[in-house]
Amino acid sequence: MDIQHLKAFIAVACTKNLTQAAEKLFLSQPAVSAQIKALESDVGTALFVRTNNGMQLTRAGEVLLPEAEALLQHKHRLEQFAQTLSADYVHSVQLGIIHPIESRKVTALTRCIVEQEPKTQLHIHYGMSIEILSRLLAKKIHAGFFLGHIDQRNLQVHFLEHVDYSLICPQSQLQRIRDNLPKSLNDSTWIEMSGISSSYKNLQQFWHRHKLNPKKQIICDYPQTIIDLAVAQQGLAMVPKHSALEAVGQGKDIAVLDEFEQHLPLHFIYLDEFSEDPAVTLLLENVQRLWKLGAA
User: What pLDDT does 296 receive?
Assistant: First the structure.
């Protein structure tokens, strides 16, 4: 039984889609399909059935899946152990960070890891939630943060907190906007992040709830520039509340519309097969402790 066939099997089981599984594995769809057929030949029965909802596991597939996942977890532990046998082994920790996390928490987390494991090489990757998830699934990082709701098999998800988002506008436009709600929101230019961000999805839901369909948008994936664009009277924006309050405290020319505050769940995520990885254990213990304490 080929380990690559098992990886393809798990990927299809998680995505329920051959194309998405192929993208996740960096393979062609025919290659993934061939690996599934080869595995089914090895076990002597069908593992999937095609339905309107995608590739669904058969009873045999449901029984095989946890065993396949356990085997990959064991393989990962063995690979990690083998690496430590090298004379020049360096314990590397790859962590994915997203923009709503305050810099003080990143600093506190870094300090804890360096103090506990002085020989550890910490590599902090920055990206949006979907980018962090993609890197995680591709095993380019050990763990990371994800903003928003997530439901994916073979992933460990630890809820940390709800992140508050505030609607900001140029101070000079505040009265005009308040006097003509909600039409003024619909007529305004909105500064938003691209579709791979959880903030974008949240904003789309916000527009839907308030029956808004703004025709003018500015796409910007650099968080601090979003606030600067609002200061420059280029539009409205939904930003992390702590960033909005910090900008107001610095005397920047923006106002916060408190009645439109939003909340998104922040999670710490990693693959099941990384559960016993020393790097993940180190990160998880410190993340949970710091978020419990507030990383003050």
Answer: 42
Q: Does position 159 have pLDDT exceeding 50, yes or no?
A: yes
What confidence score (pLDDT) does residue 294 get?
67
Architecture of 161-263 per CATH? 3-Layer(aba) Sandwich (3.40)
Share of the chain above pLDDT 90, in %: 58
Residue reference for tokens 């769940």: 265
Rounded-to-integer distance, Cα 143 and Cα 282, Å = 11
For residue 231, pLDDT over 60 is answered with: yes
Q: In the CATH scheme, what is the code of domain 1-83?
A: 1.10.10.10
The full DSSP string for 194-235 is -TTSHHHHHHHHHHHHTT---S-EEE---HHHHHHHHHTTS-
pLDDT tens digit sequence for 122-149 = 999 999 998 999 899 888 899 999 998 8
Which residues pair with residue 100 across a beta bridge? none
pTM: 0.73
Establish whether domains 89-157+269-291 and 161-263 are of one fold.
Answer: yes
Pair of tokens at residue 239: 């930003």
Domain ranges (residues) in the chain: 1-83, 89-157+269-291, 161-263
Q: Where are the beta strands (DSSP E) in the chain?
A: 48-51, 54-57, 92-97, 121-126, 143-147, 155-170, 190-192, 217-219, 236-240, 254-271
Instruction: Name the token pair of 141.
Output: 């990082």
89-157+269-291, which class in CATH?
alpha beta
Picking from 61, 62, 71, the residue whose alpha carbon sits closest to that of residue 3 is 71
Neighbours of 180 (CB within 10 A): 12
Q: Which amino acid is at 100?
A: P
- Average pLDDT on 21-42 reads 90
